[in-house]
Amino acid sequence: MRLVYTILFVFSGIFVSAQQIPGKVINAITGEPLAYAKIILPDGSQKLSNLDGSFKIDAQNKNDLKITISYLGFYSRNFEISPNKRFTVLQLYPDYEKLSTVYLSSSKNPANGIVQKAIANRNSNDPQKALDGFEYTSYSKFIIDNNENPIKLTTDTTNTEIATIVNVARAYLSEKVTKYSYNKREGEKEEVLGLETAGFEEPIYDVISLDIYPTSFYENKYSIFQTEYAGPLAENAFKNYEYRILDTINNDRPSYLIYFKPKREKRIASLEGVIYLDTLNFGIQKTEARLIGQIDLEIKEDYEFAPSKEVWLLKKRDIKIKPGSGGKDISVFGGSISLGTIQRRLSISSIFSKDTIQRNLYLDATTVNYDYNLDSIPKIKNTSAKIKVDPKANDRENSFWIDNRKEPFTSKDEATASYVDSIISTKHIARKIEVKKTMANGYYPLKFWDVRLNKLFKYNNYEGIRLGFGGKTNDIFSERFNVGGYFVYGFKDKKSKYNINANIYLNRPTETNLILGYTNDMEEVASFNYLKAPPKFYLIEPRFVNINFFYYYRKYYAGLEHRINPQLSTEIRFSKTDVLGAKDYAFAYEGEIYPDYSISTVGVSFTWEPFSEYLKTPEKSILIDGHSPRFTFQFDKGLSGVADGDFDFIRTGLKFEYELKRLDLSKTEVIVEGNYATGALPLTHTFHAYPNSSRQEAILKRFSIAGKTSFETMYYNEFYSDRLAMLHLRHTLPPIKFSNFFKPEIVLISRHAIGDIDNMDRHQNITFNSLEHGYSEAGLEINNIISGFGLSTAYRYGAYNLPGFNRNFAFKFTLNIKF
């Protein structure tokens, strides 16, 4: 049967390609393409050329076709085009008298007046602003396909056979049916009713999170695949776009055909295209937008008028991405797709690199909306998940898809569904997905065991080379629990360190887990680790290399973690820690000296991202799009007399993180952190401000890797606090593009810390300062000079400024590698 589908696809592809007459409309004088030129076909129907002037016309037979092409400011011309020609170039000559009356950006431009009215009427035309509530259903088909048919037939004297099926048909296909509900109070929610992914037994939920509907053209920012562009009907649209009337379309509801073009495309991410605006209410009837550069992105939207509510409703959207021809940089989304695997934080251009997939592939996402109910004001359950997946979504019968497919499921699709099974098997796609997802969290899967990568090798001045092995069991071993740990050895201190732990899954959908563990290791003095801090994986930890003040410890711990809702995750933990010494340090308390001591604590921690969007599946919550701010909190209570604990104390931390991204690719980051402790607190459990400088006199001897939230001019062991506040400000300027491969980023940095410490005399055999006068440093980074490497400088000023320039100045390199 698979062979039959393939043969049908081959011949259908040959037949279809023979019915297309390709061509291009250009300016006869300059040779520049004419975007969205009007093409009138023999039957009186019309179509527009693409942004690059290209077009394709269906030919029903081998006779020449007579067409008319017109363009504002140019003479209209009649042409005869032949289906026998492989490519036709059609030239239009400018009418200079008419061109002199065409204004692109002045206040006299009539297009500006129409666009201004469309902007003014956004609230009455945007369904989410104009209506109190509504519901509808949507069908989506997501494809990675071949743009050209690579199959060739070989004929010999005995028979005809398929010579090769190397790049046959598509490489990926998925379908989705979604129910949308909206009311003004709770906003919009999505429920995925059906999900079908060719070739995969388990649901590929990443496709749902990637295939997010673009926002509306009525919004100030048009967001598609997690990348934002300036909206052509935004409040400040005239700062970013030029407009021109191309035509007036006479239908049941006449429309203006408006061409929009970026004014500041080098600074602001912008689209180029046409928008059909209703002549009566100035609502959107249709849109076509395109970006041509390293990636060719095309968006087409069709709307349907609802007379009962006097609004235009989105009926169909088609998004196509294919290889470009170079030119301007285009960022489409923060992930890439390779035969069904999502690799976030990689450039979309990697889809088409020769190391990934052949350059004749394209991506096509088609969506059809239907069954609108505009009289409904649905009750939306108060849940923080933006998208919910029905437990039966991945197991729908064929009758469900027959009823809900609003795009034909062709023989080509059937061939794909059969063929992808073998692709996934032979190319080990499921394994590649598993590896990439696991590595994103710092592990590498080996059958039932996930190897923990950051335990393999480290180096610091205290241990020297630190080698080891660690990891945890995965779901292949058990879906009810995992067991993990690590073993490492330091060749300088000649000590072994190890951990063993277990996570028991009490409720996987809510991520409710019982945690048990034991650790025998070392820790930096005065470090404060949030239990629920977002997971971070570093192959290289810049500060760790130069730290020289550690303490050894043995820790027993038990905890319970639970995700209250997708945005709020918590953990309660009890631990007993035996501190086994930190160099010559000792803690003096109530007449006794403690070189070694025990700390028993009970604590609670949470992380809260109120505006981040999550996908709720039957198994777990998946982050779709992270939005600022993020709050992380922790409270620890030291318990004297409990499990042999020696001291009573309270220790707290609160961190606030905010990031503002702009359309010109600049961004501003703010991190505020406050720590407070009271009671009998040894130095090992106080706070530091993440110093990252050794005490070497020469600047180059202090040369190292700069951190993101560390103080680059602050010396190790210089300050300790039991009350500490820190402020980090980073402003990244738009990238400076010298070439496609050399686009450095300049970052302006300002860091500040203030703190104090009581009972300094309790800390024996060590000298340090408090931060009561406030510490400040200013920095400058030039990132991404070569392959993620850059340079960084910082200068220490203010109350703790030291004598001499060298002692206050830091010169380092930066490392920003995106995985």
From TrEMBL:
One Pfam family from the record: DUF5686
Official protein name in the record: DUF5686 family protein
